[in-house]
Amino acid sequence: MIEIRWHGRGGQGAVTATELLAKAAVKQGLNAQAFAMFGPERRGSPVVAFTRIDKEPIEVRSHIYEPDIVVALDPTIINIVDISTGLKPKGTLVINSKSSPKELKKSFPNFRIATVDATSIALKRLGVPITNTVMLGALVRATKIVELSNVEKVVSERFNQINVEAVKEAFNETIMLEA
Fold first, then answer.
1. b/e for 22-54, b at 16 or more Cβ within 10 A?
2. Each residue's pLDDT tens digit in the chain (179 positions)?
3. CA dist 119 → 19, 98, 102, 111, 116 (Å)
4. What domains does the chain contain, in order, with CATH numbers?
């Protein structure tokens, strides 16, 4: 089973991203769960969401405390939340950042790191800093967790073609650094 924890802020689409990833996994014949943890937070407050993907039925119904992958939708979230808490050794961090993975390696020395400037892509393509679909492209590039074509399909079913183009651009622009 692959477990993913998403960190973002209210209004950035973390919950939608988990749902889209789960739908893409199901299109590939996999089992998936998508859920979030938040209270009465307002737009801009930190939000945590989760995705599980497995070939076998998923019977676990708890939050994810030791993820294989962590996705940071907001570049400032790494300054206020320790996104690597519980991340499995040699786990993968997919971070929305203008910084290179090499620059972030100092803060996260034991993990694979992927970065993409998702905010710039979202502003250019969508006109708003909502990075959820952009970060799906980065996640697929960094992990190959699902096929890009399935992400494109589920994004096009919910949003317009501009979002699909944002996914593709992030996929192509993501930079990786191994652990």
1. bbbbebeebbbbbbbeeeeeeeeebbbbbbbbb
2. 999 999 998 888 899 999 999 999 999 999 999 998 766 556 678 889 999 999 999 999 889 999 999 999 999 999 999 999 999 999 999 999 999 999 999 999 999 999 999 999 999 999 999 999 999 999 999 999 999 999 999 999 999 999 999 999 999 999 999 86
3. 20, 9, 19, 23, 9
4. 2-177 (3.40.920.10)
